[in-house]
Design brief:
By secondary structure, the chain is an alpha/beta fold. About 30% of the residues lie in helices and about 20% in strands. It folds into 2 domains: about 190 residues, Spore Coat Polysaccharide Biosynthesis Protein SpsA, Chain A (Alpha-Beta Complex); about 35 residues, no CATH class. The chain contains 6 helices and 11 strands. Strand 2 and strand 3 form a beta hairpin.
Amino acid sequence: MKDIIALICARGGSKGLPGKNILPLAGKPLIGWAIEHAASVSRINRVIVSTDSEAIAKTAISFGAEVPFIRPADLSRDDSSEWLVWRHALKYLFEERGRLPYALVSVPATAPLRSHMDIGNCLDEYHKGDVDVVITVTDAHRSPYFNMVKIDATNNVSLVNASKKKFSRRQDVPIVYDITTVAYVARPEFVFTHNSIFEGRVRAVKVPKERALDIDTPLDFKIAECLIKQGINEA
């Protein structure tokens, strides 16, 4: 059996929605959804939560996750790199067992509408080989070639991607996608030797828009509750 570890990164500080990782969403703490999603994928051997918060750690353990360490403060700031949080967890695993896992699966707590099948699809893509990171994407509703703009210091507006070819219809522009926080699968050796996802060989798994909601604000939270009541997350 391949050694596959799921990692859920959940720090205590959140300015957009204070305490969001343990706020009850449809009767379950937000982080509980991510733990259950990861645990429901039979190929995943362990579900580990990386947090700086004792309250989050206690909640995570109650849902069956492991919290083998408390994340250091320098990796728990607003501007802390999640890439370095992944590396910190992998370093712990290497020191614990003397080897790195076959794959690290990041399952962000902020995407509670994902299906366990989305995680499984990412692993399927990773198993094909010749890849460093698998990400999830969904259809973009805006295009940098057509209806996304930037505003400069003098308040002048221009397209984000001012292609030499002029487009008059959205249907004519190159297809683009939004990166989602549904799941990531990373090759551990790559995480240790590089500093960002797109330094390597990246593939994508497409996820329906309704399962790709990322919770960052109170409005996102309300939308997620409405969608859960409609059974969106049961796919």
